[in-house]
Design a protein that fits this description.
Helix content is 40%, strand content 23%. It has eight helices and twelve strands. The chain has a five-stranded parallel β-sheet, sandwiched between helices. Strands 6-7-8-9-10 form a five-stranded antiparallel β-sheet, covered by helices on one side. Strands 11-12 form a two-stranded antiparallel ribbon.
Length: 232
């Protein structure tokens, strides 16, 4: 899962990056609020962790602007300011949670997990959609219809993870490239098509009825046609 971290204090930022990457999160780091807001506009992040006091825009301003622009990415605010009024300001600005420095690493991780659960249909360590189940720890993709399973490669896993999180939405190639290859990576668009093909083959291998459909001129979406459904 992909996390945006906006923190201008270098040692704190490095410690948080290492902690999050140890937990297998993909982290993009920004040192000012203006850059963080621009990155959030791509809407490829599963969670944003924002420091309040930053150059450019404050964490409060980033959260407020993001919400005004319809960006629904869960936001965890980090700050050394623990007064009740500051917490209220952060939550009213659009933050979903608020953590005061100093904090324990395990509490930070627990709060991030709680925010991530809001975006995913999860059961223990699994993401589900249609007749597929994706284990977030082992990257094993299983089909409830056929009883078969297969392990995914890193890029295949991220593609399905992102599609499941955005069920019902069409994702364009730019969004997928940013999500899978990173904000600073100049991945070519044909990389998306290549790995999308690999992922489709894995779905076919386990005989899943879930499909990745291309919407001409727009992007890709995840679909499941339930054979037992009767339309009225």
């Amino acid at each position: 899962m992909k996390i945006l971290l906006a923190e201008d204090e270098k040692r704190m930022a490095q410690a948080l990056i290492e902690l999050l990457r140890q937990e297998k999160y993909d982290v993009d780091h920004f040192e000012d609020g203006t850059s963080a807001l621009e990155a959030m506009k791509t809407q490829v992040y599963d969670c944003a962790v924002l420091d309040v006091m930053m150059p450019g825009l404050s964490g409060f301003q980033v959260a407020r602007s993001a919400r005004q622009q319809g960006i629904r990415t869960p936001i965890l605010m980090l700050t050394a300011r623990g007064e009740v009024d500051d917490k209220v300001t952060g939550l009213d600005a659009g933050a979903d949670d608020y953590l005061t420095k100093p904090f324990m690493s395990k509490e930070l991780l627990a709060r991030i997990r709680a925010l991530l659960r809001r975006n995913y249909d999860t059961k223990d360590d699994e993401l589900t959609f249609g007749d597929i189940s994706l284990n977030t720890q082992s990257a094993v993709l299983s089909c409830t219809s056929s009883g078969q399973s297969v392990r995914l490669g890193e890029k295949e896993y991220r593609i399905l993870e992102y599609l499941i999180a955005n069920r019902g939405s069409i994702l364009n190639r730019e969004q997928l490239a940013l999500k899978i290859w990173g904000y600073d990576n100049e991945a070519e668009y044909n990389n998306v098509e290549v790995y999308m093909s690999f992922t489709r083959k894995k779905l076919a291998f386990i005989h899943s009825l879930t499909q990745i459909k291309a919407v001409r001129g727009i992007g890709y979406e995840l679909r499941y046609d339930d054979p037992g459904r009767q339309d009225v």
